[in-house]
Design a protein that fits this description.
By secondary structure, the protein is of the alpha/beta class. The protein contains 8 helices and 9 strands. β2, α2 and β3 form a beta-alpha-beta unit.
Length: about 240
């Protein structure tokens, strides 16, 4: 079966920074990749003279350039950056996306993460996005009576087989990105308004080496992976066989 990956992250650049090496590896192996970005990243500037429309246009261009490197399609939901909440409206929008794309793997933020590396407070949009995605995947995506208006749109229930949580404090699955680390850095570099070259290379090389050390690899990305079945009890039974 062809791997069809749907990433759902809060901002432009989240997929590339969180899992760029993994996505590059999967793309090279023939996976189909769709990037869903919930917000437009319109707060992504330190220049008070920037207008919101300018920031949105710049970040969309950067995201499209990065997607081209992955051979990926980009979907935009257009929520406002910095104000994201796991609302029922967002859940419905995410169910619509997942039922439309029908991926066998969804990747998103781990909503339980608050701090990273002793210097970073996890963006509240990241936590809100991760929570909303998980609440969309279970049970709403696979239940026909959840958001019945989506059935009227022709969007049938769907089971996401694997959910990969990125930048997690509890990784149980590691992907070797040694051979694509330079490509990952270039992928992040497509988001030039957010990532100056020298500190970006230093930081993300360190993160990859640090994660790789945990996994016995030169460079790696780590994830917390959940596996689903059409019936949850069946998923538990399958793990015991």
């Amino acid at each position: 079966m062809e791997k069809h990956v749907l990433t759902i992250f809060a901002h432009p650049d989240d997929a590339e920074t969180s899992a760029g090496g993994t996505l590059l590896t999967w793309a090279a192996a023939g996976a189909r990749i769709t990037l869903c970005i919930i917000t437009d990243g319109d707060k992504g500037t330190a220049d008070p003279t920037d207008r919101r429309e300018q920031v949105i246009a710049r970040r969309r261009q950067e995201q499209e350039r990065a997607a081209t490197r992955l051979g990926a399609q980009v979907l935009w939901l257009g929520y406002e950056d910095g104000l994201l909440q796991p609302t029922l409206q967002l859940r419905r929008d995410l169910v619509r996306v997942i039922r439309t794309v029908r991926p066998n793997l969804v990747m998103t933020h781990d909503p339980t993460v608050w701090f990273r590396h002793g210097v970073y407070i996890n963006h509240p949009d990241h936590r809100a996005a991760g929570q909303a995605v998980l609440e969309a995947i279970y049970p709403a995506v696979k239940k026909p009576l959840a958001f019945p208006e989506l059935l009227e749109e022709g969007l049938q229930p769907h089971v996401v087989e694997e959910v990969w949580l990125a930048l997690t404090d509890h990784p149980d699955t590691f992907v070797d990105i040694t051979g694509v680390l330079e490509e990952k850095l270039a992928l992040i570099g497509a988001h030039a308004s957010q990532f100056p070259p020298e500190p970006t290379r230093l930081a993300f090389t360190h993160f990859a080496r640090e994660t790789g050390e945990r996994a016995g690899m030169e460079a790696a990305e780590g994830f917390r992976v959940l596996r689903q079945a059409r019936q949850t009890v069946q998923a538990f039974a399958d793990r015991l066989r």
